[in-house]
Amino acid sequence: MGAEGFRFDLIKGRARGPRLGVLHTAHGDVETPVFMPVGTQATIKATSPEQAWHAGARLILANTYHLYLKPGHEVVSSLGGLHEFMGWSGPILTDSGGFQVFSLSSLRKIEEQGVTFRSHIDGSTHFISPEKSIEIQHSLGADIIMCFDECPPYPVTLEQARSSRARSARWAERCLAYHAGRVACRSGFNGEPSGTGEAGSGKRQALFGIVQGSVYEAERTASAREIAALDFDGCAIGGLSVGEPKEMMLSALEWSIDPLPERKPRYLMGVGTPEDIIQAVARGTDMFDSVLPTRIARHGAALTNRGRLLLKNAEFGDDGSPIEEGCDCYACREFSRGYIRHLFKAKEPLALTLATIHNLRFMANFMARLRDAIAADEFSGFAENFRGTYARRTGRKE
Amino acid sequence: MGAEGFRFDLIKGRARGPRLGVLHTAHGDVETPVFMPVGTQATIKATSPEQAWHAGARLILANTYHLYLKPGHEVVSSLGGLHEFMGWSGPILTDSGGFQVFSLSSLRKIEEQGVTFRSHIDGSTHFISPEKSIEIQHSLGADIIMCFDECPPYPVTLEQARSSRARSARWAERCLAYHAGRVACRSGFNGEPSGTGEAGSGKRQALFGIVQGSVYEAERTASAREIAALDFDGCAIGGLSVGEPKEMMLSALEWSIDPLPERKPRYLMGVGTPEDIIQAVARGTDMFDSVLPTRIARHGAALTNRGRLLLKNAEFGDDGSPIEEGCDCYACREFSRGYIRHLFKAKEPLALTLATIHNLRFMANFMARLRDAIAADEFSGFAENFRGTYARRTGRKE
Question: Which of the residues B127, B296, B309, B371 could staple to B301 if both were Cys, CB 3.0 to 4.6 A apart?
């Protein structure tokens, strides 16, 4: 099928190992490997779109589950779709809501048709099916949307992993069929999308399938083959970084990536830390998302090349140096550790903003250097250097 | 005496009635009448200096009491003084700490020498005298600093008002003597300020006296004469907007301004609303400060020319229009009422930031239009029009 306006070009690398690529979207191009900051409720917490953009955020993620519940996807749609709503003119990816339905809501009833659950906000009852998730994501109008899948926790039995993987495969086909049908239907309507303008048009939205299978090789392989066989615009690896040991995650990632087509983007959902990203890039992953950099910022932890810096520490009280010497972010250009510590201790909102800006910038710069290293055939050296320096401070300070 | 680098030019108007002027400071010129946003803890809550500047803030106020307690004026001084510390390159005014000592702290003991009080943060005991207040303000290094005065609440008896006014007068002389002494001493030191660089130099700091006297005409007049007789760089009117009826405030303001020198700036402390500013400008006031625009923003109230708009109201849920049509602030240029309502309902920090930016911009634009009206000899027409339009919505929505 293929979404209009969406294309992935693999610039360097093959099916495995570090790769360079470009995601072309209707809202601009994005170089991969890319890290996506998370704007759960249609805002990257504690920053304006302007600040996040200047900090280097390009492709960002918003959560379908949260926006469906509040303010409601119809409201977002009536206000022009997600880009217009949140004032973000760059590309956006929405998840399917599946992960949150399985992790945040209560009283879930999972059936073949879909999932009935209670809102974590007000306890109201809702039903989301694969079709409904795609419909909501059409309303939101992100550039990249995701299949609705069943996300098993860790650990599950092989039996559970298999049954869940099989259901996710059936749901993936239903998502694709619904997406294709709606797109065809929309295209047929005077050639104009019937949605709420460009942002809401399924025509321009890329749909990614999701590999599941918990930590079992046979299930991961089977799932990846199922997803690879379908006409998705990209392939995500889901169900990882949910508590399993790091080694297991990396093995499951390898099993998941192995059967995937070389020329489609691979997206490892919910990862993560710079260390994990290096490991996953080494195994052929192109896209990442995590709340980590923005969440730890709000708790006063800054990412630096020497590890995490705990900004509330008393030692920084009269420290006139920036969070990280040489960093070009607004926080480091304009403010001292002493001032930022004061803001945290005084519970000033600007504390969260400055730490978030710094961590966004750190991730953007980190990914840019990582891409440069791949381009220069120096990825392993970069990875080794980074890990050596990064681990030292993290070890000392935490 | 006169502070180097500080000068007030009266451009239009006389001792009474609306006036236009320019405050020249080492950190830039400011047109008067001016409204000063408040950055209590060395930050205008929920905004970056960049955002506040773009929203039109120029001369801002920081609170000596709060900064003395946290992070401590020595820390601010060691980090380069207030401008450097908070990343604000425009002019800054600090209050004396008196108002907060009298309103926030507990277990006050007021003696002729100074005030002993307990911190509202941790209960620790502190002593601030007129000299100590000036010393702290020298450390902080604002462009304009204030006398330490006794701020009686409302109501007090005539007897209390008189005794308090007399003490404030004695304290004013001590502040001036200490400031002059330190300035002379600093000037004598190789011609270089002995403080922590330019920002911390008493030489360049203007000192304002403060008129007190509660709501009693004789006391206000006596206090204003006492302040007028001393060599201050400007004259503030304190002790108002503390709960007294509006009519009383305006009378007390008139009694306070009447004896003041024509060519020094007059600053009405803690005021306030656009309506009050219009009344005070009509009576010859040049400077204002209030937490109101930024505080109500954080509670979801936006200032508009048609009164306050309560952004959390359900009616704005799918409203695609900006907070105020025609407003040139970042919030109004980029976002809808519907989105900002969503941010408030979702408790996102960006809600506070956008509402604060809008209210800062509203106040800056309001003061600019007010100055234009004075320049065009149309102040009464402007005041009448504004009040007519503003009152309608405020009446309807609250």
Answer: B296
In angstroms, rounded to a whole number, what is the distance separating the alpha carbons of residues A183 and B31? Answer: 58
B95 in active site = yes
Residue B43 counted as domain residue: yes
A133 and A272, same domain (yes or no): yes
The answer, yes or no, to whether the previous bond of A71 is cis (omega within 30 of 0) is yes
B390: left (phi over 0), alpha (psi -120 to 50) or beta: alpha
The answer, for B221 touching chain A at a CB cutoff of 8 Å, is no
Q: A87 and B335 in contact by Cβ < 8 A? A: yes
**Is B212 in contact with B152 (CB distance < 8 Å)?**
yes
Contacts of B51 in chain A (CB under 8 A): 48
Residues B85 and B165 occupy one common structural domain: yes
| Residues pairing with A287 in the sheet | A34, A267
| Neighbour order of strands in the sheet with A115-118 | A106-110, A115-118, A125-128
Residue B240 belongs to domain with CATH number: 3.20.20.105
Do B215 and B229 share a domain, yes or no?
yes
B225 and B120 share a domain? yes
Asked whether residue A130 is domain-assigned, the answer is yes
State the residue range of the domain holding A381.
Answer: 296-388
- Separation between Cα atoms, residue B167 and residue B147, nearest integer Å: 12
Q: Which of residues 337-376 of B touch A (CB under 8 A)?
A: 338-339, 341-343, 345-346, 348-350, 352-354
Q: How many domains does chain A have?
A: 2
Check if the beta carbon of residue A151 is closer than 8 Å to that of residue A239: yes
Do residues A336 and A226 both lie within one domain?
no
Per-residue pLDDT 10s for chain A (398 aa) are 567 789 999 999 999 999 999 999 999 999 999 999 999 999 999 999 999 999 999 999 999 999 999 999 999 999 999 999 999 999 999 999 999 998 887 778 999 999 999 999 999 999 999 999 999 999 999 999 999 999 999 999 999 999 999 999 999 999 999 999 987 665 544 434 444 334 444 468 999 999 999 999 999 999 999 999 999 999 999 999 999 999 999 999 999 999 999 999 999 999 999 999 999 999 999 999 999 999 999 999 999 999 999 999 999 999 999 999 999 999 999 999 999 999 999 999 999 999 999 999 999 999 999 999 999 999 999 999 999 999 755 544 43
Which of B41, B80, B334 is closest, CB to CB, to A87?
A: B334
pTM of the model: 0.95
Examine residue B2 and state whether it is found in any structural domain, yes or no. Answer: no
Catalytic residues of A: 95, 289
Q: Which residues of A299-319 are buried (b: 16+ CB within 10 A; e: fewer)?
A: ebbbbbbebbbbbeeeebbbb
In a domain, B1, yes or no: no
Cβ pair B349:A353 closer than 8 A: yes
Spatial CB neighbours of A378, under 8 Å, sequence gap ≥ 6: none
Residue type, A204: R
Do B146 and B255 lie in one domain? The reply is yes
A242, A273, A290: which is the final residue of a domain?
Answer: A290
Query: Does B77 share its domain with B98?
Result: yes
Indicate whether A186 and A318 sit together in one domain.
no
CB A172, CB A226: distance < 8 Å: yes
Query: Is B48's CB within 8 Å of A51's CB?
Result: yes
Dmax (CA) of chain A: 66
Answer for the pair A261, A233: CB distance below 8 angstroms, yes or no: no
